[in-house]
Amino acid sequence: MLYSVKRDHARFRSIVKGKIKSDLKKYIIHGEMLARKGKDTVTIPLPQIDIPHFRYGDKEKGGVGQGDGKPGDPISGQPGEADGSGEAGNQPGEHVLEVDVTLQELAEILGEELQLPRIEPRGHKTMRVIKDRYTGISKVGPDSLRHFKRSYREALKRQISSGIYNSETPVVLPIRKDLRYRSWRSTVEYENNAVIIYMMDVSGSMGDEQKEIVRTEAFWIDTWLRSQYKGIETRFIIHDATAKEVDEDTFYKTRESGGTLISSAYKLCQKMIETDYAPSEWNIYPFHFSDGDNWSGEDTKLCMDILKAEILPRVNVFCYGQVESRYGSGQFYKDLKEEFGDAQELLRDAKVTNYSEQVILSKIENKEGIIQSIKDFLGKGK
Amino acid sequence: MSLPLELVKLRDEIRGYAKQAGLDFFEVVFELLDYDQLNSVASLGGFPVRYPHWRFGMQYDQLSKTYTYGLQKIYELVINNDPSYAYLMKANNIVDQKLVMAHVYAHVDFFKNNTWFSKTNRKMIDTMANHAVRIREYMEKYGVDKVESFIDRCLSIENLIDPFLPFQPKKRSKTKEDEEAQPPQVGRLRVHRSYMDSFMNPPEFIEEQKRKLQKEEGQSKRVPLSPQKDVLKFLLEYATLETWESDILSMIHEEAYYYAPQWQTKILNEGWASYWHSEIMTKRALKDSEIIDYADHHSSVTAMQPGKVNPYKVGIELLRDIEDRWNKGKFGKEYDECDDLVIKKNWDKKLGLGRQKIFEVRRVCNDVTFIDEYLTPEFCERLELYTYHFNRRTNQYEISDRDFKKIKEKLLFSLTNMGQPFIYVTDGNYLNKGELLMLHQYEGVDLDVHYSKETLKNLSEIWRRPVNIETEVDGQKKLLTYSNGEFSEKFL
């Protein structure tokens, strides 16, 4: 009897994969699947798998809820009927199906769709990764891993069974033997090391829409590279006339104003590589996103020098994405192209010069351009 | 897997308590399953055998993932059948098993005695298995994809049924007298002298008159005669379907009617079962050492999340409220007309009718009548219920009101017709072109247009001719049409 469900399951998965493939482009454009949940799963709402019925429009409907609050207060979470636990033969109610796809699966779909080649890593599997997983509960452990609920439950049990518990004054005091701790197991794995260094121009001309493009594109690059390297690191640099390292959140949210000196970011990137990432052991991926409006030709020249002398010899590829802003597209793309040539064209003409293979340029005019741009960046299997 | 001795003993114990409490149930067969088996059975709606379809796999996928990530686990699964089947999870501890058994016996009592379940098929396990065999045969004969796609289309309209139909008196089938009564007369010209008849009414003329009459008869027969809510049944009778298609549609039709009472009584059914597991556990079955695990479990089942209504919670609380009111005599003209809040609060006539009353509620009510009859302002206040709406400006859901009337109205609206729009077939020969015309009886809430279009498309693939639905969009009457691969809309 159980066999048949497994078959239905396999069929469902294949339909879903098919659905994702055909809708993939749409998802990338709308950035709908960016909700990252847990460590490595992504939740994709896939209403298409919901067989259509005549039904009321969701937002029109409203309904009845429960809890605190005054009229006008927003309701946290998605309203709707709580499912409780599945009752006899009730098919799940009116909720949107969410299909969980692991990042690994997502990357496979992406790779297949964009026909991305698998990356040939440099270096050896040198990085020793120790992974800890919480696997159980034990009676001893450090305080920081104390399991609150379990400890108190034990205490409550003990108090009730020994008759100390008084429901009038319900005080529960755990004693030493009530305490419970989470316990873990460690495993050692060897990995190829890789680091992605994201650099973004946050000068006044980069608006929210441009950042959204960068964010979406970075997500997909991240997903793909993560599927190729296990222990990947990411670093984030923002720059206007000066550059600084920031965390991921700040990276996407900061809006500075003022001028643009791209060289500042490249200098910081170079420093980062020198101090933290020896090229013999690391696969290094710098990505730079900008609207291409550099302050001066002089600074642009400085950029080229840094790239040629310091960065390019150490990295797998250097990717530059130019996002079109309200003020049009800047000069920097052309400058890079003149210096290193359009990698794509050169490849076609087999006219490969020094380093030019390592510099990948891409123009992203709008959200629709993201897919082509990802293809540009990752299509070479570097 | 049948139960080990320990659980058999427990089952007999709980069964005894349930009997003593006055519950009246079909025999229940408990099966012990591991989590994966349980998820499999649950994804088939509790039935051991169903026809192959991806949506069962989809449910399996969800269940096993939510279980793996620790988001939820199924704790009880019971099917309406005689005997009933219920499933226990192997890994659960003894307290949970007891709780589930008590809960299950109450559900089965409900299945057996609630009037809305009285017309359901009590041999549904066999019927489902039978459906599976037939659909598998069709799949072998006509191809899996073709059959599955047809099922998908049928499922798209499976909610277009009439849950009250089983309770309507059967239409009197035509008797002999009806048939013989006055065949319509063929129009003849009046003839004063009988010898003139063959001249005045020559055979050609009579023939022509006959044809005219038949044509008129055909036109006057509108199908359906009055708007019909059971669209599935209408399609079964009038759509041009292959034999296998018609057979599949009839199976889906049957399964939809089997499930309908479960949708109609969700709050009451869950409330009833929770009420009884609580009674049986706390008064009879629990050992001292088990009380915490039980309380933990019970409170997680009946927990309310902000912005959501938990049927378990509302059901059990409302039943307890009714029991309390009927025990104390807090009902009737005298109580209603009393306007002293203190007296009202301390009202106690010591009638002790509570238990009897909730058994009556379990027999005659569905969710709509349950809420309509017994929801009180005091109850809404105690449970902190409110109504909410979507604010387009802030793009979020907001609390609108705590007014009792509005809460009741909204709640009833979400329960009436199982929260689905009212759709009727009004004409099977629209525009005299064999098109299907349906009517959405507008209740103040627009249909989801995108979904409606997709549904029309599926429907037209079953009907094989263009399909139309009259509805209202943004305050304007509209006709949505799907015809030859295209949608169109026009104002009426």
Description:
- The complex is a heterodimer of chains A (382) and B (492).
- Chain A has 382 residues and is an alpha/beta fold.
- Chain A has 3 domains: 64 residues, no CATH class; 61 residues, no CATH class; 186 residues, 3-Layer(aba) Sandwich (Rossmann fold), CATH 3.40.50.
- In chain A, 37% of the residues lie in helices and 22% in strands.
- Chain A is built from 11 helices and 13 strands.
- In chain A, the strands form 3 sheets. A 6-stranded mixed beta sheet of chain A has the order 10-9-8-11-12-13, sandwiched between helices.
- In chain A, helix 3 crosses helix 5, helix 5 packs parallel to helix 11 and helix 7 packs parallel to helix 8.
- Chain B has 492 residues and is α+β, with helices and mostly antiparallel strands.
- Chain B has 4 domains: 110 residues, no CATH class; 80 residues, no CATH class; 115 residues, no CATH class; 70 residues, no CATH class.
- Chain B is built from 21 helices and 11 strands.
- In chain B, the strands form 3 sheets. Chain B has a 5-stranded mixed beta sheet. In chain B, strands 1-3-2 form a 3-stranded mixed beta sheet.
- Chain B starts with a helix and ends with a strand.
- Classes of the chains: A alpha/beta (382), B alpha+beta (492).
- At the A-B interface, helix 1, helix 2, strand 3, strand 4 and helix 4 of A face helix 2, helix 3, strand 2, helix 6 and helix 11 of B.
Notable characteristics:
heterodimer, A: 382 residues, alpha/beta, 6-stranded mixed β-sheet, B: 492 residues, alpha+beta, 5-stranded mixed β-sheet, globular
